Amino acid sequence: MKKHWVLVALLVLALGSAAYAADSHTVTVTVNAFARISVTGIASGVVAENDFDVNGNAVKDLKSTVQISVKTNKHNGCIISASAPDFSNSSSKFSVNALHVKVGAGGSFIPLANTATPLINLTGPQNNITYPVAFQLNLTGNELAGDYNTVVTYTVTPNS
Fold first, then answer.
1. Are 72 and 160 in contact (CB under 8 A)?
2. Over 80: is that where the pLDDT of 67 sits?
3. Residue 8 in 3-state DSSP?
4. Which of the two ends of the chain, N or C, has the fewest CB atoms closer than 10 A to its terminal CB?
């Protein structure tokens, strides 16, 4: 009888292990790179008569509360670019190249254009890191007196 129970136990063990057979498969996903930008604040300034030098040129730092927040999952970072149409009012305009921009604390001022101009290359992933934006106006003296506006558009592109 004891042999009978041993035989039953072996049979149950053999059949039970067959019920626990396993197999597997691979799950593959692709996470595409992304970059997002958020811009807040304003920039403005008044170029006074005494800001112009004897040749009629003026370099004026504008008051700026502009902040750019950047988020990207790209391991080698992203590039922030900007563009703007020419400054204009109801009767006159002048080139947006007179507006120079600097993103972050370091670096130098870069003149804007009507097409996207790279301003800064950020390395590594960015997790809603905020950068201040400074503006400088470089006038030649050929601009007519008046109030002018332009709208700066920022773009962010993941590095390739």
1. no
2. yes
3. helix
4. N
Q: Read out DSSP for 26-43?
A: ---------EEEEEE--E
Task: Kindly tell me if the per-residue pLDDT of 6 is higher than 90.
Answer: no
Of the candidate ranges 17-21, 31-35, 50-54, 99-103, the one whose mean pLDDT is the lowest = 17-21
State the pLDDT confidence band at 9, using cuts at 50, 70 and 90: low
Tokens standing for residue 9: 């136990």
Q: How far apart are CA 67 and CA 132, in angstroms?
A: 5
What kind of fold does domain 35-158 have according to CATH? Immunoglobulin-like (2.60.40)
Percentage above 70 pLDDT, the chain: 88
> How many Å from the N-terminal Cα to the C-terminal Cα in the chain?
76
Residues of the chain with pLDDT > 90: what percent?
81
Locate 92 and state its tokens: 């006159």
Q: For residue 96, report the phi and psi dihedrals to the nearest 5 degrees.
A: -70, -15
Nearest to 118, CA basis, from 150, 149, 147, 159: 159
| Residues recorded for the chain | 160
Residue matched to tokens 């601009």: 143
Query: For residues 58 and 53, what is the distance between their CA atoms, to the nearest angstrom?
Result: 6
pTM of structure? 0.81
